Amino acid sequence: MPYSLLDDVAASHDPIQIIGKLHSAVLISEEDWRVIQEILYLTSIPGMRESIMEWLKSPIEECDEELAW
Hints:
elongated, single chain, mainly alpha
């Protein structure tokens, strides 16, 4: 597999579908794979999804200063 393909996937964050005669696969960057795994883990924790959705509704002014960028 050409390294330029890996570089393109890593830079663009666009998955590439690879279609073979018997099977298909999707190429994504390692960074994107890790993000997907983290999201799956966090959303598997009971109540976490609801907690995140509630947090997203909070005005930035109400967030802790330590968490502000």
